[in-house]
Every structure is written in C-alpha cells, then in structure tokens.
Amino acid sequence: MADAFSLEGLVKRFGDVLAVEDVSVRVAPGEVVALLGPNGAGKSTTIDMLLGLTRPDAGQVRVAGLSAAEAMDRGMVGAMAQNGTLLRDATVAELVGLFASLHRNPLPIREVLKRAGVTEYANRRCGKLSGGEQQRVRFALALVGDPDLLVLDEPTAAMDVDGRRRFWASMREYTETGRTVLFATHYLAEAEDYADRVVLMRHGRVVADGPVGEVRAAVAGRVLRAVIPNATRDTEAALATLPGVSRAVLRAGHAELSCADSDAAIRGLLREFPLAANIEITAVGLEEAFIALTADVEEGALR
Ligand SMILES: Nc1ncnc2c1ncn2[C@@H]1O[C@H](COP(=O)(O)OP(=O)(O)OP(=O)(O)O)[C@@H](O)[C@H]1O
C-alpha cells in the first residue's frame, strides 16, 4: 500500500539556524503519529513542509504519492495550524460554511460541527470564543474537506483539561475510521495516550521513531548514580563507554549514567572503577526519559 505520506531527507535552514536536518519519516495509512519534541525542535517547520507551506532546502515530501501542493489542492489534507487567525465577526457555522465553499466535496456543515464538537456554539461569533473553543473551531475547519490525512500542530495548546478530553474523544472517532493523523505536541501523555507511534525530534533531527511502547523501552532505561573517587578529566568519557551506558554525566565526582542495560553497566563500572561508592540504580519514567532524550547532550550520545 502507498504511504499516507513520506518525508525524505528534509532539510530547512533559516539563515544560520538549521531548523530541520535530514528528517525522513514514512507513515502508512491509518497510523496516528505524534511528533514530539521541545520548543525549537523543528516540529512546526517539518509540518509546514509536509503541508507545502514551506519549501525544503533539500529532500522530498510525498502525500499519497503526490506533491504536498497537489495533495492540498485536492483536499486530501486537513490542517490545523498553531495560531491560524479566525474571522472574528463570523459565527462558527458561517466560518465552517465559508471553508466548505472552498472544497470540492465538503462534508455537510452540521456533520462537521458535530464531529468537531462545536455544535453548541455554532451561532457564536469566533471573536467571542475562548482560546480552547477557538482551537476546536480550527479543528472543525481541518475536517471540512473530509481529508484522508489530518495534520495538527499542537492542537490542544490552549485547551483546559476538559477541552483536551473532549477534543481527543472527537479525534478518536475520526481515527477509528482509518484516517491518518500527524499531530505535534509537547505533551508526552498525549503522545502515549493517543498515538500509535512517536517520532521524537530534537535540534531538527529525529532522535527516536517507533511504536509508543518501543520508544519508551528504548529510552526509559535506568539511571545509575555513583561517587567516583579521584575522578579526572577523562573519567566522564571513560564512563560513557562502559557497556550498557548510553550517556554519562560527571559533576564533582558524582556520576550519573543513563543505562540501556544497568546490569552490564554496574559490572563494567566496578571492573573499571573498583572504588566507585554509594551506588544507586533507579528506573526512569517516560517523562524523565523524554527530558534526557531531548536535553542538550552531545549529538549521537542517545542514538
Ligand atoms: N521563519 C523562521 N525564521 C527564522 N527562524 C525560524 C523560522 N521558523 C522557525 N525558525 C527556527 O527554527 C527552529 C525550529 O523551529 P520550529 O518552530 O520548527 O520548532 P518547534 O519544534 O515547532 O517548536 P515549538 O514547539 O516551540 O513550536 C527554531 O530554532 C526556530 O527559531
């Protein structure tokens, strides 16, 4: 089956900033993918290239085998930007109607309002809605063309807990019909709860990509802490090369080792540093693993 979309070797620079560096992702129809990463990781730039809003400096975007522009033109992609402005004086229903008039085969307006969960404020002016309500209207606009692929940039950014819950309930209904979704988020819990797959970005690169459980297993290892007497300048590098250790930080003789295999790490540690003391091993939650993965560490240390 053809990919729902594919990004191949995407690169985008803004002056001196390398916003996206060699990003390649292939997504099959029906996958719900979370694009996760901290501020400035390159998520929005990647999404803009997928939507054909930004031209890549290198690489290629294909959406169902077409160029991004062709796919958008055919109404195959529904997009929800982070801060797209809404016409303040139009009611929600009017705005949805306006968008529907731009599509070749729009869904009935009533159906869109229902799917996006905005029926109750269909007759309110957009300018009078709260930030979270406006986000839901943007979601409605993304659904108007009944697209095969939905691309959402931080869809729940302005929503409160209840708004988020309701938004994801609407999304579930949409994804149950086998549609493909890519959503950017800062919220690990959203990625865990609603995505089949996580693509984790940092500094413009993909640092992890896989099913949620797999990414969790790959990154959420254990942390080994120990005091290393007589540490020298070379000790940190030596700790980083111990078996089972993916990353080492040494400060004032206190070592913190991120371990994919803590059993191998502790054996190696005691072999190479027999004086290591106060050894402690703790499990890392996904939240901590996410922070570790997206922290400003040496490139490659976590790959
Ligand atoms: N139009 C632009 N001009 C200059 N630099 C830009 C532009 N757009 C993005 N950047 C830079 O590119 C990098 C990636 O930004 P991007 O918005 O893609 O990240 P992001 O992961 O979406 O972040 P956030 O979660 O804050 O939205 C950042 O360093 C950002 O400052």
UniProtKB/TrEMBL annotation:
Keywords: Antibiotic resistance, ATP-binding, Nucleotide-binding, Transport
InterPro entries (UniProt xref): AAA+_ATPase, ABC_transporter-like_ATP-bd, ABC_transporter-like_CS, ABC_transporter_ATP-binding, P-loop_NTPase
Superkingdom in the source lineage: Bacteria
Hydrolase as UniProt keyword: no
The ABC transporter domain, residue ranges: 5-228
Any one GO biological process: response to antibiotic
Gene Ontology CC: plasma membrane
UniProt-listed Pfam families: ABC_tran (PF00005)
A GO molecular function held by the record: ATP binding
Record localization: Cell membrane
Membrane topology field: Peripheral membrane protein
CDD domains: ABC_DR_subfamily_A (cd03230)
Protein's recorded name: ABC-2 type transport system ATP-binding protein
Source species of the chain: Amycolatopsis umgeniensis
Taxonomic lineage of the native organism: Bacteria, Bacillati, Actinomycetota, Actinomycetes, Pseudonocardiales
